[in-house]
Every structure is written in structure tokens, then in C-alpha cells.
Amino acid sequence: MCFNRVILMPTTFYPKWITQSGRPVNMWSAPQQLFDADPFHLRMVGEIRAAMGLSPSLPFASASNRIIVLASADAAARKQAGIATPRTLTNEDELLKALTALPDVTVKQVDLGVLPTDEVVKLLNQTALLMGYRGASFGSLVFLPRGAYILEILPLGTQHSPLYPSLAARTGKEFARYVNDDPSLQHCRHPHTGDAVVGEHCEGRYTELQVKVDEVMQLVRSILDMQQAAMARYSFDG
């Protein structure tokens, strides 16, 4: 995304991170110790927020008005916009039903990939937990308030990129992953033909995944409890 004075790096950009031996590594294989708090990222996000009429400073996650955003993939809207839908949660409706049954939270199911950028920024500004199947739209996590959580859902065999945990750490968020451990719950499709593929031709980004809703919800409850306990120590509302 490009703005007047700000550029957000796309996932195809490779920062020149250098190991002690002098060998450059790209962001997909960078070690955890390279994660650094970086004021530049906060200034960058602040300029975007200011351009959209918000305070340049990221707020803290609210302890009293918590919103969960379930990042979804709206196939119809994506088709109309000419955007691919490479991965899906086949039982997302079941997960959404379980989330909406949680007390004292508001759940919003949205496709961040087709929502206008200004609406994404304003929605995530109020969000306590962003969760969903990994996708490029997770780069929007930089607009979450400080103290917010990100829960990334991944299929078995997916490369664990440091990109999103790094963005979270650099802008004051917490990051967690749920990784499927049952091969029978995921099915890979060829990106062009849609045919089923197996073995080395099965890429995580083209996987249809059925999550174990009970396990995901157990993790969500733990996250909300930890967040509530942390926010209760301070007064960020109002």
C-alpha cells in the first residue's frame, strides 16, 4: 500500500538482514532474534492514521469494549474485484457461531482484502483480537491498538514466516498461532485447475482447512483472559 509520504512493504520485499557470518537472509527465514522494536514502524503507521482523521498515536486495546475480527474470504466480493481466494476454512461458520457465543465481546466477520483501506484502519483501531486463516491481509495488523492479539491459523506443513510476528512485535501487539496437526482435515488444491494435489505439490497457501473448533476456542479464551488480566492493571479507557 502506498500513501503520500508512507510506503508499507509488500511481502515480496526482502529486507537486507545480515547474519553474523555476513550472509544475507530474507524475511521468510530470518531468526527470531532479529525481531526489534522499531520506532520507524510506529511513525509510519501514525502518518497513515493521521491521514485518515485518527490520532497518530496507536491507542491501547480497550478492556471494556472488546471486538474480535474474524478475517474471512468473501469469494463473491473477491471474484468481482479480481482477487484470488487461494485458501479457505471449510467450517468457518461453525467457528463464527462459537465466537459469537462468547460473553462480553463483539464479533465481526470481514474480508480485509476487499474492504477499503480507510475502513480497515478504523475497524482495527477498535479491535482486541484479529484472527483467521493466514493471508496477505494480515499485514493490516499494524493498525491494531497496542495490547491487541493476533491469532493466525495455519495448515499442517506451512512455512512459519516471521513476517507477521515481527510486525506485531514492532507495533506493540501479541502474536499466537494455531497449527493444524491432523492431515485428514486439510485438502490442497492446484492454484490454477482446482484439482486435488498431494505430496510436495501441496502448498499451504492453497489449502482448504477444517479447524478443530474446540481447540481454537480454548486458545481464544486463554488469549482473552490474558488480555483482560493485563488491561485490568491499567486504565486505558476513556
Automatic annotation (TrEMBL):
Residues 82-150 form the Glycosyltransferase 61 catalytic domain. It holds the Pfam family Glyco_transf_61. It comes from the Eukaryota. This is Glycosyltransferase 61 catalytic domain-containing protein. It comes from Tetradesmus obliquus. The lineage of its organism: Eukaryota, Viridiplantae, Chlorophyta, core chlorophytes, Chlorophyceae.
